[in-house]
Amino acid sequence: MQSLQSKLGGGLLISLIIIFTALWLLVSLSIQSLAEDYITSRLQHDAETLLSSIKLNKKNQLEINNIRIDQIYSQPFSGHYYVILTDKQSFASRSLWDTTLNTTPVNTGQKTTTIQTGPEEQALLLLSIGYKKYGIPLTIVVAEDLNPINDNIHQFKYWFAIVSSGMLFILVTLQIFILHKSLKPLNKTQNELIKLQQGQLQKLDTNAPSELQPLINEVNHLLDVMQRRLLRSRDALSDLAHAIKAPLTVIKQVSENNNFNEYDKNLLLKQTDYIYQISDHILKRAQVAGSTPGSTYSGAIFSFQHDLPDLINTLKMMYPDKTIQFINNINENTINHIDRQDMLELMGNLLDNACKWAQQTVLLTVQSDIHLHICIEDDGTGADPEKISALSQRGVRLDEKMTGHGFGLAISTDIVNDYKGDVDFNRSDKLGGFKVDISLPLKS
Question: What are 96-131's pLDDT values in tens digits?
C-alpha cells in the first residue's frame, strides 16, 4: 500500500507541475500579446505620420513628402514597410524594393491587424487603417517584422522555463522536508503502538497534533475498556473458582468414603446440582451479554434504540411469566461513551436479578440530561434497609434459597464505578420491591 507521504508528495508534485505549466503559458501569451500591442501602437503612430506627409499637388493628385518619413522605410528589406491605397493611386515604401504586400482596402475609420509572411520570409504584423484626406478615401497599411521580438520572447520563455524548473525543484524539495517533519508524530505514534503491543506502555501519549487527538483518544479509551474488561474477567474467574471450590471439596470428601449411605448420596447429589446451578447462571449471563448481533465487537458504543429492545426480548424469553415494562425518555441524538459489552453486562445483570425476584412486573426507566439515569424496579419482596449496604460486596446474597451466588450486583457496581458513575440500592415506592438507581456521565 502506498504511504501517506508518497500520496501527499505525489499529489503536491502534480499540482505544482500543473500550476507552473499554466503560469508559463499565461506569462508567455501575455508577453506575446503585450509585444504585439506595443508594435501596433507604434505602427499606428507611423500611419499617422504617413497621413500627415500626404499632399495634394497641382494636378489634384496625392503625393508623399518623403522628407517627413522615417529613413528606415527607405532601406531595402529593413523589416518596416508601408503601402498607401486609393481608388486611383497606390504608394509603397522603398524598403519593399520590387516586392508587394497582400493588402486589402478598409473603410474610413476602420482598423484591422493581420500577420503574414514578408519579403524575406519574415513574420510581418500588418496594421490597416482607413482615412479620408482632401475628400479622398485612402487606406494606409503599415507593417513591421516580428522576428526580432519573437526571438527575444522565445529566449525569455526558455529562461523562464529553466528558472521555473529550478523553483519547482526547490519547492518540491522543501515540501518533502516539511512533509517528513510534519509526519514525524505518526512515526512516534507507530513506535508507541509497537511498545504498547510489547507491554512497555499502558497508553498512547496525548501530546500530539490536533488531527491525531481523536484517534489517540479513541485508542486510549479502547485500552481502558479492554483493561476494565480484563479485570472483571479475572474477578469472574476468581468468583467462579471460589464458588465451585466448596462443593467440589464436599464431593471429593464424599467420594473418598466408600460406604455410601442415603445421606451421603443426597449430599453428593445436592452439591452436584449446586455446580450445575452455577454453570447455568454463568451460561445465562453469557446469553444475555451475547444475545444481539455484533456483541463481541470491542469498543462499540451501546445504543439504547437498537440494543436495549433486543436485550429485553431475550429476558422475556428467559422469564416468560414476568412482565417487563420499558419507559424510554432518551433523545436519539444523545451521545454517550458507554461500551456496548459493558452496558450489556450491566443491564443484563440488573434485569436478570430483577426478573428473578419479581412476582410479575419489572419496570425499567431510562432518562438523560447531562447524565444517563437508569432505574430498575421490581414487585418482589425487596431488601431489608440494614442489609442493602452490603449488596455491592461479592458473594453477598439476601436469600440463600434463591439460585445465584451474589456476584451480579457487585459486578454491576464495578462497571458503574469504572465509568465514574453512581449506583444506589433501595426499596421501590411504585412497586414495593427492590430498586436500583444508576447515574452515568454521558461524555468522558
Answer: 888 888 888 888 888 898 888 888 888 888 899 988
Going by C-alpha positions, the residue among 436, 325, 330, 324 that lies closest to residue 376 is 436
Co-location of 241 and 118 in the same domain: no
pLDDT band at residue 375 using 50, 70 and 90 as cut-offs: very high
C-alpha cell at 422: 453512581
Residue whose entry in the numeric block shows the C-alpha cell 513574420: 123
Which residue has 487603417 as its cell numbers? 129
The Cα 356–Cα 350 span in angstroms is 10
For 244-297, write each residue's pLDDT tens digit. 766 767 776 666 665 667 777 777 777 777 776 666 655 555 444 444 444 444
Q: Is 346 exposed, middle or buried (0-12, 13-18, 19+ CB in 10 A)?
A: buried
Please count the other Cβ atoms lying within 10 Å of the Cβ belonging to residue 160: 16
* Total domains in the fold of the chain: 2
Closest CA to 430 of 374, 375, 379, 359: 379
Is the domain of 133 the same as that of 243? no
Q: Could you tell me the three cell numbers for 430?
A: 411504585
Q: What is the mean pLDDT of residues 69-79?
A: 84
DSSP category for residue 23: H
Model pTM above 0.70: no
Domain ranges, residue 147 = 4-151
d(CA 330, CA 11): 46
Q: How far apart are CA 66 and CA 75, in angstroms?
A: 13
CA distance linking residue 313 with residue 304, whole number of Å: 13
DSSP-derived 3-state class of residue 428: coil
